[in-house]
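Q: My labmate handed me this sequence with no annotations at all. I'd like to see what the chain might look like in three dimensions before we decide whether it's worth expressing. Could you predict it?
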Amino acid sequence: MSSTENPLFRFGIIADPQYAALAPDLAMDRYYANSLAKVSEAIAEFNKADLAFVVTLGDIIDGNWESFDAILPLYDKLRHERHFLLGNHDFAVAKDHLASVFDRVGMREPYYDFAVGGTRFVMLDGNEVSVFAPPENDPRRALADERLKALRARGAINANPWNASLGDVQFLWLRAVLKRAQAAGEPVIVMCHYPVYPENDHNMWDAERIVSLLAEHDNAVAYFCGHNHVGNYGLNGGCHFVNFKGMVDTETENTFAIVEVFADRLEIRGFGREESRTLAF
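A: Here is what I predict for the chain of 281 residues:
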């Protein structure tokens, strides 16, 4: 443990509320409508703390454009800055709404970075090349078909249509951000809806190149994601890969977290089903 007892700053994490006005899926243990109460509970807890921001790691809704109208106003009660990432279910809307999803949740850019307290945060658009997010006839859909077909030919366990990948331009942008942050002495925390490590059937199609890129930069200290609702953890080189549990799962148990950032570690304080962890740099 470091002698530094007070964190540099804190931030909140929610993963996969996946709200919809639907009956529960008992086989999957998902209670879509109950996420309104769970998000409200998380926000009430966040409002008690001194946080730099709160990020929701995608799958804000399960589907249906009108679902945004019910869940997004809950975030207006949050007294902290908010960030949204988008997941596959956020694009389970009518095709004429696909191009408007980012605007609907107030995202000015699909992917971006920002700094807080000397730490660089990178917010990825994991849906960029997918079979569901780009508007119809967008060339990224054809590229997604090619990538999925190639993975299936290899027998890859993540060759699933509900996963996705980065475009090559975004991947090069990620490399440039990591390089600049390394030169500036900034630790980097990458966030995305989709996991990339350890190997899992929920991982991004291009997980291997992302993990390899992070391994090339010793300032990449953590990668946070959702998507795989049971959660997961892995350490590759000096980077901690944390898959936060899905809020929509279980009838009454909640799950969210507050992350405390220190000079030499991250302390994850889990609530409900989310585990608490110490991630040393």
